[in-house]
Amino acid sequence: MELNTEIANKSIASVDEASSFQSFQNLLTAKNIDHAFIELTSKCNLRCVYCAVSNEGYVGYKMDDESAENVIQTLINRGVKKVQLSGHGETTTIKNWWKYTEPLLASGVNLELITNAALKFDDKTIDALARFYNITISIDTIDPELFAKMRRGGKFENIYHNIARIRQRASELGVSGPTLGWSCVLTDKNIFSVPDLAHEAIRLGIHGIDFCNLEKYERPTDSFQVNHVATMSLQDVRKAYDIMHEVEGLLRSHKMGCHIQDGFFEALDRVLAEEKPLLAESEEAIEEEVEEEVEYELELQPQPQPQPQPQPQPEPSASPITNLTKPLTRMCLDPWSFSFIKSNGDVSVCCWQGPVGSLKNTSFDEILNDEPAKQIRRGLLTGDLDSRCMKCPARPLVATEVMIKIVSE
User: Fold this and answer.
1) Which domains are present in the chain?
2) Please, are residues 230 and 241 in contact by the beta-carbon 8 Å criterion?
3) Helix 234-253 and helix 264-274, axial crossing angle in degrees, nearest 10
4) What is the pLDDT of residues 354-366, one digit of tens each?
5) pLDDT confidence band for 324 (50 / 70 / 90)
6) Are 211 and 186 in contact (CB under 8 A)?
7) Are the C-beta atoms of 129 and 168 separated by less than 8 Å?
8) Contacts from 160-165 at CB under 8 Å and sequence distance 24+?
9) pTM of the model
10) Cβ(189)–Cβ(240) under 8 Å?
11) pLDDT-derived band of residue 71, with 50, 70 and 90 as boundaries?
C-alpha cells in the first residue's frame, strides 16, 4: 500500500504512531458493498421535457454483457444486499434484460427498479418484476393531456396495465410482490394537479410517492417548457407551498410514504421570505451559497488551544492523523458501502462524485479500492473535502472525530 510520504514524514514520530497511522489507512478500504446501482443502459424510449436525454447531442450507452455479469458477480461476492437495476435510462427497453436478475434473485438480493412503465411488458418481464423488492414508476401527473406533454412518448394506459399484471403474477407465484411507488418531478405545470395524483395513488394502493426537485438541464426550445415551482408568482408559490404540505399530510395519514426532495421547500421558503420569485440562477451561485454555509459552520467550531508543556503522550488508540483533521466533515458512508456502475463503464462510489475508475481498463473489484476511491474516503475522514463533497446537499455536517469512530466500528 502506498503511503502519502509527506503526511507520513510530518505525522509519524514513533513506532506506536506508525502503527496508528497504518490503522487509519486500513479505514480507507471498502470491504462489503451493501447497495449498488447498475445502469444497464442510459438510453430511453421517452423524451420527457425536463430530462437530459431530450437534449440535442445526448448520447446513450448500453453496458456489454461481460461487464454486467462481472459486476453482478463481484457484488454478490461482496455481500450486496440491495441492487437498483436502473440509472438514467430505461432498463426494460433492453432485449432479455431480465436475465441479469436471475443470479441476484437466487442470491437473495433485494432488487429495485425505476421505470417509466411505458412499454406493455412481456411475460418474462412481468415474471421478473413480480419478484422484485421495490418498483418506482415515473408518472408526474394523471392528467392525460399534461402527461402527454411532459412525458413525450409515454402511454398512460400502459402504466395501469403493467401494475395490474405485476400484482397478478406475484399472486400466482405466491410471493408478496414488490412495493410499488410513484415518482413525480415537481414543476410549475403540474404542481396544482399533485392532489389528484395523491388521491389516485391512494385508490390504487401505491405505497408512496417521491416528489423530485426539478434539475437544471438545457431543454429543447421547441418542447413544452417547464420551470421550477419557485419561479411562479408569489401567490402561486404560497399556494404550492400549502398544497405540498397538505399532500404530505394526506399520504402519511394513509400510512403511505412521502418523500419531498431536499431543496424544494427551502427554495419556496427563500422566495416567500424575500417576497421575490426565484430567477434563473447559475449553478455557481447556488454552489457558492452552500460553500459559504459550510465555511460559516466551520468558523463556529472552537479552535484548538495550545497544549501545556510538557505535552502528554498520546493514547495508544489515538491516530496522528487527528492532528491533520478539520473539525467538520460530511456524514457519508457511501464510498464504503455504495457503488454506481454506469452503462459506459464508469464507476462511482457516490451519486454526487465523478467516476473513480472505468471497467474499460480496470476490473470492478480493483476500482473499489484503487487510489481515487480511497482519496474520497480519506477526505471524509479528515474533513479535507473536495469541492463535490463540500457542496453536497444530500449529507449533513458532522464532527470529524465522530465520522472516524463510525467508520472504525
Assistant:
1) 5-29+289-304+325-408 (no CATH), 35-280 (3.20.20.70)
2) no
3) 140
4) 999 999 999 999 9
5) low
6) yes
7) no
8) 160/204, 161/120, 162/117, 162/120, 162/121, 162/126, 163/117, 163/137, 163/204, 165/121, 165/126
9) 0.82
10) no
11) very high
